[in-house]
Every structure is written in C-alpha cells, then in structure tokens.
Amino acid sequence: MAAEPTAHQLIAQHRPTLDQALEAIRTRAYWSPHPEHPKAYGENGSLGMAEGKAAFDALLGTRLDLGQPGTDDWVGGEVSPYGIELGVTYPHADIDTLLPAMRAGQRAWRDAGAEIRAVVCLEILKRISDRTHEFAHAVMHTSGQAFMMAFQAGGPHAQDRGLEAVAYAYAEQVRTPDTAEWSKPQGKRDPLALTKQFTPVPRGIALMIGCNTFPTWNGYPGLFASLATGNAVLVKPHPRAVLPLALTVQVAREVLAGAGFDPNLVALAAERPGEGIAKTLATRPEIRIVDYTGSTAFGDWLEANARQAQVYTEKAGVNTVIVESTADYKGMLSNLAFSLSLYSGQMCTTPQNLLIPREGISTDEGHKSYDEVTADLAKSVGGLLGDDARANALLGAIVNPDVKARLEAAAGLGEVALPSRQIENPEFPGAVVRSPLIVKLDGARKYWENGGSDDEAAYMSECFGPVSFAVAVDSAADAVALLRRTTRDKGAMTVGAYTTDEAFEREVQEACLEECAQLSLNLTGGVYVNQTAAFSDFHGSGGNGAANAALCDGAFVANRFRVIEVRREA
Amino acid sequence: MAAEPTAHQLIAQHRPTLDQALEAIRTRAYWSPHPEHPKAYGENGSLGMAEGKAAFDALLGTRLDLGQPGTDDWVGGEVSPYGIELGVTYPHADIDTLLPAMRAGQRAWRDAGAEIRAVVCLEILKRISDRTHEFAHAVMHTSGQAFMMAFQAGGPHAQDRGLEAVAYAYAEQVRTPDTAEWSKPQGKRDPLALTKQFTPVPRGIALMIGCNTFPTWNGYPGLFASLATGNAVLVKPHPRAVLPLALTVQVAREVLAGAGFDPNLVALAAERPGEGIAKTLATRPEIRIVDYTGSTAFGDWLEANARQAQVYTEKAGVNTVIVESTADYKGMLSNLAFSLSLYSGQMCTTPQNLLIPREGISTDEGHKSYDEVTADLAKSVGGLLGDDARANALLGAIVNPDVKARLEAAAGLGEVALPSRQIENPEFPGAVVRSPLIVKLDGARKYWENGGSDDEAAYMSECFGPVSFAVAVDSAADAVALLRRTTRDKGAMTVGAYTTDEAFEREVQEACLEECAQLSLNLTGGVYVNQTAAFSDFHGSGGNGAANAALCDGAFVANRFRVIEVRREA
C-alpha cells in the first residue's frame, strides 16, 4: 500500500482542479472533472464495471465498521426497492461519546486553513469518484434509481455538487486575507498602525440529514460545504438509504486520517428503526449547522426548533410547466415525456402541474386542443416506455410503499389521461416499477378564486411520485396567475414553459423573477427541466417555500464559518 | 438647480469609488473616502461648520414632510439628551397604504442591475456626506454623543460602513455572470447547448430598525445592503433618534427620484409614543429582511417571530478585557481609560469586565497588585476627565434615564474603585453628563463553578452605560476560563487582552477563535478596543450571542437577494 499523500502533495495534486472549479462557478460554462460514462472507469486506480459490482456484492451482509468512538450497537435493515435485503449493519452511536470526540480534531482542522481543507475534500471526492461503480449500486439499491441514473446522478453529478460546494467554501474563506497591515494617516503625527490577522473559524459540528431518493446528490453539498469551512460533520442518513453515505463517511475518515487529521471530523449516525434521532441531534447544542432534504413538515420543524443552528432545508414544492404554444410540438412532447418518466417522477424537480389553456394551443402542427395535447403527451410517454427494458432503465423502482399508495390513490382524483402501468423487472422480480400517471384536472380561476375545488386541492399539493396533472386553465394569463399562486403558496424547485409568444414569455419570466423560481424555457432536446448541472445551474432558488437555500451559491457557504480578527499595534 | 445626474453619469462619477471600496475589502488596508476632520467640509457643495449648524437649527420645530404615500398623521417628540426639544414631526404611515406603494418601484429597481443600484447608493452617501455637519448635530442631539464623536462616528464612519455594505452587496451580486453559454459535449453527437440568464432578485421589503445610540452607524449597513441588493427599505427609527434617519430617508428619496426610480423604495415609519410598531412591521408578510440593533430581549423576539424574514441582529453582550501583564503600563492605563470614557461607555463595544489576577501583574514598572492596577486605572480615568471641557468632549451625555438609573444602582454592587462624577455642561445645562464608575468584584472560580455569587450576577450581565467591573480572578488561566464562559453565555462584541507572555497570548487567541469573539491585543496607543474601521475591521463576529451577523461580510449580504436563472436551448 502506497504511503498516504501529505497535505502539500494534495495541494500539488488537486489545486488545478480547485482552480478550474473556481473558474467554472464564475463563468458558469460547462465543466466537470467527473466522467459520466461508465466505461471511463477502470483505469488509474478507479474501479471498473465488474470490480464495482463485486465491491458492492462484497459489502452485502457485512458489518461496516467505521472505527467510530462510542459505538454501542450495530444497526441496519435496508431493503432495496429492487427487493433484495442489503444486510449491512452500521455503527449506532452513543451521542454523548461521539459528539465530544468529533470536537477533538477541530482545532487542527481549523488551523490547517482553507486551502488544505479544500484539497483534503477534493481527495475525498477523488476516492469516491474512483469507486463510482460501487457507489452506483449502493445508490441504486437504496433509492430505487435505475442503474444508469444511480451511476450518473449518484456518482459524477453528486461529486460535481460536492466539488462545487468546496469551491464556493474556499472562495468565501479567502475573500478576507490572512493578514493585513492597516495604517491610518494622522496629519503631522505618526500614522495609527495595526497588524491584523484573520482566521476563518467553524461554527461547530454540522449535521447532514440525508434523504431516501438522492442520498449523495442532495447530501454532498451540505457535507462538503461544512467540512471545507472547518466544521466537523455528522451524517444522519435516511434509514432506507444508509449505505451510500456510510461509504462516503468511510472514505472521508480514511482520507482525513491519511492526511494527518482526526478521522472523527466526519462520522455516521445510523439509527434503530423508529428511533427518530434527527430531532434529538438537530437540537443538541453542539450542532451548529443542519442540512436537510425531505418533507416540508420536518423541514419546517427544523427551522422552528433547531434555533441554535444555521438550518438549510430543501422541502416539498409543486412544480409547474405552462404549455402556451410551441414551435416544436413533437420535441416538446418527447421532452416532457422524458421529464415525467425519469426515476418515476421521484425527483423534487419533476413537473407536476401541466397548465394548458382549455381552448388549446398553437403549434407547428397546427392548433391542438387541450384534449389533444393531453392525449398526445400520454401517447408520447407511452411510446417512450413501450419497451419494458427501456422502461426499466428510465423508471427505476418505486422507492417506498408510500409512493405506491399515493400513485394508486391519485388515479381517483380525476379523469385519467394516462394510466400507470405495472412493469416487470426480469433482473429484480421484487422491484415495484410503475410508469407515470397523468390525470386531467380543472384549473378554472372561478374555483381557485372562490374557495377551491377538489381538483384544486389535488394540484395544490405535492403528489410526490409518478403523478402529474394536466390542468385545464381558462387562458394563458390564468396559467401565469396559477403559477404565481402555486409557487407563492407551495414553493417550486423548477418551472417550465413552452411559448412562441415573446410577450407571454416575458410575463412568465416576470412571474418567476417575482416569485423566485428557476425557469426553463422551450426545452425540446436533450436537457430536461428536472436536471441541473453543477457549476452552472442553481438547484432551487432559496427564495420560495420549496427550499431556503440554493445549490450552490455564496449564501449556502458564507454563514457556515465566521472570521475572527486579532489585531495588535504594528 | 442643476439637472439630476443620469444613471450613466452616476456610474462615471462613482465607479472609481466603488472600485476602491472593492479593493479595500479585499486587502483590508486603511481606506476611506469620507474625511474625518470637520474642517475638510465646506467646499465643493458640502456644508461647512456654520452652514451645517444653521441647517440643523432650521430643522427644529418643523414638519419633515417626506412626501410619503399613506401619511395619516404627524408624530414626533424627540428631546435631546442635551436637554433641548427638537420639535420635529415626521410622517406617520398607514402601513396598508405605504407597504404596497413601496413595492410599486421594485421591478424597475431590480431591472436596473447591481451596478446602477450601487452607484445610486453611492450618490445617496455622497449627498449625506455633503451634509455631515448637519447630520452631526442630528446625531448629537438624539444619541447624546459629544459633537466630535457624533460628527465622526455618525458621519464619515457611518458613511464608510454604508459604503462597505454597498461594496459587499455589489461584489456578491456580480459573482454570477448576467449570462452564460453552456455547452456539454456528447461524444459524436452535437453538444447539448443552453443559454442562461442570471438575475439577482430582491427578497421584498427590508425593515431596518434603528437604535438610540448610533442611528446612522448601526443603521447604514443594513439599509444600504438591502437597497443595493434590490430591496425596498422601510426605516423604523428609535423614537428618541428619528431625525438622523429621517434625513437619511429624505436624501435617499431625493436621489432615487432624481435617478428616475420610485422614491418610495425608501420610506420612514415613525411612530406614536408607545405604539411599538416594530413588532407589527417585522411580522408583516411583505417584510422579508429585518436589521436590528438593540436589546437582547427584542432581538431574540425578532429571531423567533419574524420567521418570514431574514433577521440580522446586534444585541447585548458582555465585553471582557484581560489584564495579565504589560510592557507599557502607562500606555495600557491611558488606552483603557479612554475606552471606558468614550461616549460614557454607551457603546456595544465598550469593555465591561476587566479581569485582573488577584495576585497582581508584572509590568514595565514592576509588579502591580490588583488593588494598584485598579487604583491606577481609576487615577488614569480621573486624569483624562479632570478637565470639565475635555470630559464633556469625551463623555457626551447620558442617552436616557434608564442608563442613569443603572449607573446609580451599579455603585451599590461592590467596592467602588472610581465613583462616577457629575459634570456640568455649560453649553447645555440640561445634559446629564457622568464619568465612568469602576466597581471591584470578586471573580473567584469557586463562585462561578458552584452556583454563583452576587458579584457573578453583576459581571455576567450587560450593564450598559458608564460602568465597568475590575474583577479579581485567581489566576490568568481563570481569566481565560471566565472570558470563555462569559462569551459563550452572554456574547461579546469585543475582547481585549494585555500580556507580554507569548504562551498566554496564544491561550487568549485560542479562546477567542473557539468562542468566536474579535480580539484586540496590547492596545496602548491611539486605537481603542471599542473602535472598528470599515473596510478593515469586522464589527462583531456573528458567531456568539451578541450578534448573529458581522459588519460586514459576505454572509451579511448574500441572503438579501436570490439569483434567478432562465435557461433556453441555444
């Protein structure tokens, strides 16, 4: 086994990547150091396809001993949405032992400075990247994502988001110089002169609460933003998606120790079934930062109760696409069909409400009535998923029984434009695979301006899963009004719109600027409203109810540390 | 009257200043565009000493009509701490009319972009700077600061803090480019290509709640940070310190209108006696940002209740100076004497607890016992303030009867090392002028580790005003332990220390880094622990209980706006 690289070797190795990341967040042009193609792995120390699978298989049924202090038990019980039991057990921590142990290494980590912290984080990401194939299976068998998506979103894209957070954290910390000489003229007298030292100091221990559907993609920004700013990080995974984050913690601990830091700067808090330790942890005085992705109810609880901490939440929202007109009817339909199908709509960014004028829309194929648009979209989804192998590759599996139950109930909400289809997965017979359901609803202004309707109750709630609503609105203007209302009352991670009318486009843009929602216009090709690219796209805005932070920007990192000044007479 | 400058003329005029400010916050070297000397004013359109006084005198007894919509009454009743009634009345607003009017101009202000907003803010500051002499009297006769301090802290230093906030706000907004071309390679296929637009959007209306003692210095950072990031700003002054902020609002409205924007982007919310409108305003849904300086009780209330807003608070703290040893005993005593005396200790940064080892300290003048240090400090303060004219020029007036009552009660807390002296002000016979009180207390660890003592109850509370405690501690190590405990439990805006021992200096530094407090070491000359300079020093850390934000850093501005992205296929 080769000797662990020193901090200075890590700088030599990773500083060019850090500089490229810093440049990327300035220009927001395309950039990624993490290959998207599975075949790009297998050389230069990274695991290839077969090796990654073997590494994952070797994990099954084992105890993942992270060497954490205060381990009082071993817990686990993940069952893959594809039906297999993972059988991996993880350390259960005595928090009163673990939290103090996590503080022990903080001084050395703080004193290392922003650059060394950044390159240590980059080394963690590099080693995770080398194991992307192994992580892909871990993400697939906890989130239910299909393999290719688990590979890309759970691998390089998540690593990109982690690296982006490191770049923002580094940039923020070096805005203030390490030292300054301050000399204030005093007329004929000697100037007043001070020497000033500035040190970024961490807030304390950060708690990252992981989610079921995107354990790495949603988890890495907070984890790396906190670690890069000098905090210790306690990772509390979703009980159904422990493995990808436990492996992440394992890698982080190895790299920290190898670089001469205390591995307890990163630790895992796995829990017993029903233990609900997130509430206990989030309100501990040692916890000064919380990152959370999940339900609005618990996100709101954290914001209200974890008052000793900076709380960053991504919660539920209701995403809208307005269909007003298009110059590429087929492209629009296929783009939307893909958006609705990807990972069975189990993305916080998947469109839910498709607002379509009741009298129809103009297209390059002539006028299309509301019923035609809806039927054509249903047909497009049906075509996309007609082949079972392709359907399995796009849809993945339903992540948990709640989503399945919600999907089944949603069929009763209105006229079904496209029923959800049950699809067999020959490789994993236990997988619950379902195609998207599209339900027609009435979004007439007279209802939502006068106390609502059953339809309104449906489309004004997040129905997380493969469910979307084709909502007939009285006019394009009403679509914008309903978009505003939905975003204001329920939040939105994404908004899409299709229009060939410049004035209408400006109206939609204005609505998104005022309601603070990220807008994709007229997507008809290979980019989808539910996908964002690190270093270029913001994920969420942090300005509407769906999330109080955006991935990633200055606000996401600036309050994870403070700058302490020591001044003396020069 | 000359024509109002256009936005482009403002760029030509102010961009160089903005660039210098941006450079200053990067290097943190000394810089200020606002002259400190009263004689520097009176030319190039600025008011000279006599003109400023005349302008202030002309305001007395008048109605300050700001031309605000929804004015339903005229209110006022400021009485100067120097005894004169100002007799100025201000618009009282019907909030349900004023708040909607403040939103009307937000779109144009947002669309103007970061640079034009910055130079409009700089023009506001320039016109305020030109009236520094007038503002000095307004600050003096509301805060009770002596003229020279009101002139400098209320004038150029406050303007510096405002400009610093504009610079941070500008820098933060331009971190993301206006547009980006994103092109992602797809192997042999055409790349995926998107055009992206990024727009900084405001959160909404910001509420700036002013304080009695530093209406402009503490008010300008929040006001200008919010305005420069595109928000409208409602200014709710302290009822005893309305005039400086009302004049500020007046200038801002003039400049906004002159530059073609809606003057209602900045408005005043003066209140009737006892009306307590801050609570009502702070929880209005339109209010999305709150800046507050004042009591811990109300700051905590705002943080807990104004949940729809980003809340930035500066509250009370207990500031410590550790006296362990010194190589310049006289310099230390005179520096501390000045710190305790300036504005009668009515600064959030004034030292309160002077921790002195019971067995005394080593100095360049030999060993000094605790009693000697205390007596010599008392003598130094006495000497500094021996001359009544000089005392008046340093102390200013007691800002309100609460401070006077607290001072009188504090004399009963322990042995008095230096009694507070009543000083006549021949120019303003109504002024309540008092020299600092120093009380000796016992800070033995056995008390504060075992349930406290009356002495502990005294030094562990903020006693705002000209009161400090010479606290005898058992050892230098105990001083650090008490510093840590005080900062952790009560917060601190400043920490000072005197020591010639390098190991002890490191101990104090480590305590400040861990407890997140700003440290001044061995100040013996013309810089004082209670003074911070914009562009170089941070005011507070935002990391202990005294304040949740620092003036000024990225975190202070980054969450006052969000960035909205609109993306389309290229």
TrEMBL record, chains A, B:
Signal peptide: none annotated. Residues 92-538 form the Aldehyde dehydrogenase domain. Keywords: NAD, Oxidoreductase. GO terms for molecular function: L-glutamate gamma-semialdehyde dehydrogenase activity. Coiled coil: none annotated. It holds the Pfam family Aldedh. It comes from the Bacteria. One of its GO terms (biological process) is L-proline catabolic process to L-glutamate. GO terms for cellular component: cytoplasmic side of plasma membrane. InterPro entries: Ald_DH/histidinol_DH, Ald_DH_C, Ald_DH_N, Aldehyde_DH_dom, PaaN_2, Proline_metab_enzyme. SUPFAM superfamilies: ALDH-like (SSF53720). PANTHER family: DELTA-1-PYRROLINE-5-CARBOXYLATE DEHYDROGENASE 1, ISOFORM A-RELATED, DELTA-1-PYRROLINE-5-CARBOXYLATE DEHYDROGENASE 2, ISOFORM A-RELATED. This is Phenylacetic acid degradation protein PaaN. The lineage of its organism: Bacteria, Bacillati, Actinomycetota, Actinomycetes, Kitasatosporales.
